[in-house]
Amino acid sequence: MLAACRGTEIFIGVVLAAGLFWTALGSLAMSRARLGGRGAWRVGLGLLAAQGPLLVLEVAFARYRSAAWNGVAERSFLQAALVALAATAPAALAGGAGFVCALRAAGSGGFSRVYPADAWGGALGGALFSFMLVEWVAPIAVGPFLAAVLCLWLRPESGKFRRVSAGLVSCEILVGLGLVWSGLDRRLEERRWHALLPGYRLRTVRDSRYGRIAVLEHPRTRQFSLFQDGGLTAVLSPGKPAPAARDTALFVLAQSRVVPRDVLLVGGGLDRSPHEYRRAGASTVDVVETDPQLLALALDLQGDGAPDPAVRYRCVDGRRWVRAAAAAGRRYDVIVVQPPAPLSASANRFYTRDFFSDLREVLRHSGVVVISIMGSANYPGGTAGRLSAVLYHTLMGVFPEVRAVPGDRHIFVAGKQPGTVSVSPGELGRRLAARGVWLDEFDPDFRTNAELYFTALFEGMIPASQTQGFAAYLRRSRAPTNTDFRPIAYSYALLVWNQIATAAPDSRDPGLNSGANAFFRRLSAFRFQYGLLLPLALLAPVPLLWRLRKKRPHSSVLLRYGVAAAAFATGTFGMATEILLLYAFQNTFGYVYGYLGLLTAAFMAGLALGATAGRRRSSGVRSPAAALGAGMVLCLALPVVLRALHALPPAFDGIGVPAFLLLAFAAGAIDGVTFPLLAAVRRRSEVGRAASSSDSGGAGIYAADLLGAALGALATGAVCVPLLGIEAASFLTALTLGAAWLTVPRGASPS
Amino acid sequence: MDRRSFLERMAKFGIGLEVLPAVASVAWVRDRVASSGETEAAFYRKLPDNRVACLLCPRLETLKPGETGFCRVRTNRGGVLQTAATGRPCVVNLDPIEKGPLNHVLPGTAVFAMAHAGCNLRCRYCQNWQFAQASPSTTRNLRFDQMESVRLVREKALAGVCFTYTEGVVHLEFNLRFAAAVREAGARAFLCTAGFVNRKPFADFLDQLDAVTFTIKGATDRFYRDVIGAPSVRPVLERCVQARQAGKWVEVATLVVPEMNDSDRDLRRIARWIGRNLGRDTPWHIERFMPKYKMRDRPRTPIATLERAREIGREEGLNFVYLSNLAPHPGNHTYCPQCGKAVIKRLGFRLLANRLKHGCCPYCRARIPGVWG
Ligand code: SF4
Ligand SMILES: [Zn+2]
């Protein structure tokens, strides 16, 4: 599902939450059904085998509606959530129900055997996804292969079922192979692009570790558009002029008071920009682009003659390049940062105070940094205004002087020294004219008065009235600072995106600030105190249940509640830590798509081993409180550890990546070990009751855990991290565990 | 215009910009006005049950009490149609007149460009969506002093006021008043409009206007329906003719969106229609689409397409076809239709040289149509 969606973490959170929600529902529903051992085999096998075709359908559906995931077309946050709910429903429901069937089929005590197996499956899936599926197998073909593994896992003991099972496994494998050969994925992609950009020809689709690349060709003009994960990344017209790139290059180079020698482009260097910087007078241009496949494609499409040795392409994450350059003593006169909009944590890293501080280190004394962000040329306010205010104040926290030019993309220029940067067309024109810059395409009539010509050019770029108004707006605005660990620009950017997405073409509502947008605006005022509501809500029923138990001492309701609350909190903890680790991983290494599965695999492996260990322990009387306590300690330590890992120089990657995997493993292990312990407590409380209710108890714990996980994914990914930061999110998770720790039964007490 | 007079113009404009803090103080400092002000709208009819019929634009909406129109500007308050555009614009700027685009009106001057929030169209590439697709009650509006603004226009020798950025016709009541005040003070009033308005209200508006730029956004009803959110292009074309017949200076602009309205057939249709109905001397501005708003993942128009459009315009006999937002380009300049020489040179929206002598070509003395002084 994620392979098909490839959205930002928020959508990863939404998809995960939706999937977990349906799985919980599926397992709850099946726990009510009366099925014997053989029936359970039969139904379980059917449900798990059905996963193959269902996943294929889901991926096809997600592809069909894929605009929802990356904001290509108008799908608002809520619409995206609804599509996620609809798309994940069938397979997740079947999976949840299948899990309970497996429990039944495994007989008494099955829960603690099936659960680790489930987790191992998750680990295997994650690892497979990371190492194989991303680049080799089209996501649409993944479903049948996974279903084949599931059917193998549920291998029945009796011969007749074995044959059925073997038949199903081979069917799934054949279907999977068929899908790989059939090119269905490509056809779906073509349909999608045909719907989005009729008239354009899909030339290439390629999957890389950084996302899906599509190249569309405009048939009559040989204009190529490069899309990454559905977002327009570069437009190339080989052999044709690129006026926008040229004007930006002139504007940027004019910002430096001295003749700039060395230019660094972080992103945005796929088109003719580097050559325009050279034409405008730069001696060397370093272009940093993360995705080697994207860069190779772009250079291939450009195909213009002999390469310029002064333009050096570096395939590395921009932030890491800057750190490495600082360590190597490399310095630049001008740095241009053109990342995608901060609609994901990995893009947000290029708008943070931490990054700007790194940039300062590699700037020469008179150097300037130029960065742009989505805006509105004539109107400084609105949500885009708030976003630009965040960027302005973040830059101001690092540089002594920041100027801004409003436009469809607001351009911010920051100087290392006061008095360097300028937004005066006359001043900029003078600087360029004094350097003797002149380009072939300029009007020869004005060759002798280059200053006037450049001034007019810059007057076109820097609308005086709008620029003054914008400066006044920024000075007066108050906005929080965007940092790696509190990516506030991320949530503001999502607000802008959601406004665009929700403005319905035929709507007559009050416009951009009504409905869901009003809700999200209010949500953007989310405070730490509101986060306390969850732990408080977990504690709220306790006094009531306590009183009930006083009246009826034999009732196990308090114990049952404690177990459910602990399962819920563990689910929240598991998913919250996973998302926190994904965020932090992106902050540190800049890419997560390929590693998403690996981190999940480490988490799941921890879960499996933890569950196995917990099963052994559960034979004795053990309190799950200790496990919850360990979770709290991990949550409290997490921010410190993550910051330390974040601060490691690139040379220490050998430590960084395994450390993240280890953290994910530890979180998984704590999550996993809690489970059988809770199940054991619950079982002991029910000695003498019907066996089937024990299963339903296991399923109930499972469902509570999944619901907690769904909430954890949503709250952490969509609200806590962007608005409150990683520290606060960890702390709130620790508090949630703390509340469960207070309610969880200490040792089992058979009634 | 020689270099010296050009520099003088530039200097004058520069002075104009220096008073911007004054405009800025109108604009950004004394803002945060309470947004509840409304006044009674013109051009509506009362119906039974406190309903009203708005007669301003071709949507001709019937509004129940409490209902707001598609434009988000006009609301039925207990049987009385009220407008929220009451002199609290959300944008005020000093723009070069060429930005309108108006290339044949007082080149090199600046205008007092202003807009209220709200629009009766839903262009999917809206450049100003943050306020055009919002109601005046939800935007950051400015305290606006009419007298002060008129004084500013006069003192700083601005060409006049230009209602632009959003659809000026849905703010008709205020715009009419302000245009009249500006003209009374000896300056001019201009409108950049999509022309989706009814005949009678537009006739009243035209009385107070000196020049109008129409955007004919596409050649077909289908394009208007799918991309612009209006049922038909017909009313737009009728308003162009109406303005021309009223003796106003008219220019036409078309934003060329790749694979949506850029076929030779569509472009030729527009060019031919302009030539036949508005005259071959009507300037036609071909504008480049840039990814924006709901169409921000559509690539910008290839330059070859724009040049082809310019060719088509010329093939259809139009004398003045411009590529406005692509610079530098030969399509920025004004050429004498008789001798073919460049008589006004521009760099995008900026004037570089105005060689006209009393509105005539300095080389062959042919008259170049426009409002030159
Ligand atoms: S002007 Fe506004 S209220 Fe009147 S008909 Fe048009 S959209 Fe509706
Ligand atoms: Zn002539």
Low-confidence stretches of chain B: 1-35
The CATH topology annotation of the largest domain in chain A reads as Growth Hormone, Chain: A
Percentage of residues in DSSP E strands of chain B: 15-25%
Strand tally of chain A: 11
**Count of structural domains of chain B:** 2
The largest sheet of chain A, given as strand count, sense and whether it forms a barrel, is: 7 strands, mixed
Bound molecules: iron/sulfur cluster, zinc ion
- Distance N to C terminus of chain B: 13 Å
Q: Could you list the spans of chain A in which at least 5 consecutive residues all have pLDDT below 50?
A: 1-6, 67-74, 690-694
In DSSP terms (H or I, runs of 4 or more residues), the helix count of chain B works out at 10
For the record, the count of structural domains of chain A works out to 2
**pLDDT average of chain A, as an integer?**
81
Oligomer: heterodimer
Helix vs. strand class of chain B: alpha/beta
Query: What's the architecture of the largest domain in chain A in CATH terms?
Result: Up-down Bundle
Keywords:
heterodimer, A: 751 residues, alpha/beta, Growth Hormone, Chain: A, Rossmann fold, 2 domains, 7-stranded mixed sheet, 4-stranded antiparallel sheet, 30 helices, disordered N terminus, B: 373 residues, TIM Barrel, 8-stranded mixed sheet, 3-stranded antiparallel sheet, 10 helices, 29% helix, globular, binds iron/sulfur cluster, binds zinc ion
